[in-house]
């Protein structure tokens, strides 16, 4: 894929990924087939900041986990009231990283499987 397109993609979407993942993403995209570009443009990533805000407001009900696609963990948090609050507090520190990991999974899905 064209390096200019890859750099444009990274500049517009770098907040959705961990900083240490960016060089690997760039290398992967440069080596990817040009036909993947349309799929990349149509991707919509979850914003880690929004996930944190949702976690602060409704984390004890598992809404944050449902938002990023962790349905099983969302149900677990819902049934236990956020692990009696403990799980909710832990997720305040973990939810942004989990959101970025889900975004990376979505990117890999488009690059490698479609």
UniProtKB/TrEMBL annotation:
Print the keywords alphabetically.
Membrane, Transmembrane, Transmembrane helix
Q: Any transmembrane segments, and where?
A: 74-95
Primary location class:
membrane
- Pinpoint the TM2 domain residues: 46-93
Where it sits in the cell: the answer is: Membrane
Tell me the membrane topology, using the record's own terms: Multi-pass membrane protein
Source organism, top-level taxon: Bacteria
Q: Does the keyword Transmembrane apply?
A: yes
Q: What is this protein called?
A: TM2 domain-containing protein
